[in-house]
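During the reporting period, we have paired protein sequences with backbone structure tokens. One record among many follows, to show the layout:
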Amino acid sequence: GEALAWSPVSGQAAALLEEAAELLVLHRDFAGAVERCEAGCDSLGTGTGTDSSAEVKCSLCVVGIQALAEMNRWREVLSWVLQYYHVPRHLPPKVLELCILLYSKVREPQVMLEVGSSWLRDQTNKSLPEYGSLLELYLLHVLLPLGRFEGAEELVRGCDVLDSEQQVAFLRTICESRSQWAQQEEMHLPTEEQQDAGAETVLGALSQKLLTMLTLLRRALRSMSSQFYLLPYKKMLLATFLLYLVVVRLDPASPTSLPFIYKLVQLFRQAWAAVVSPIHRPPIQN
């Protein structure tokens, strides 16, 4: 692939991103990771900048979100990212996605109610390829768990990005959720204490799964580090780490996501095979 041509500012932010990811993954220094992310975002300023600087800023926020969650400071996440993007409609899709999932996992979906609505109403965002999947995420993890069935139906019916088949499928999901909601109200629900304990367990399992996966990746990469002819070890680790964070939206704790993770590992192996194949290897220097 082509090497990214960093501007001096983007290069500085990218170096801070690499440091932040290393602190998070290798050293588990979550506070240090957040500090590097903040320094990186501050160095990029408030403007939109180039595509490369926007991508670095988004990645800094992704690492920062995970670090804050690891310190159980998830309540700060939304205000933390909004200090760099100012208004919800400017949030990158990856950042919005992680925020929706995080507040869903800690059973606080109402935090994302207005934020998600504002983002989805924005005309510029409607042209993004991720719009449909984010609308579905907002529907399943925010509106339906809060019992906002009328709002969900209005959102789906008023969305010109969805085709008729998608609209019918979403409306059917809303109808099923409404029925389940009515049934649950007739039954005895678990106490709030049990729900809170469940939320902590889920978040803990998610973090543990992430750290286990990254530890395995780190060991595999270290064992092959002597063969890194084309890509520095830390950059490969960082790229894999950021890619894995995006996969979190499929919830690694869920059996349905396992085939996707296996495919991800296979793709990684194929990419690695291409990198170290004899054709790509530089001649050995005496």
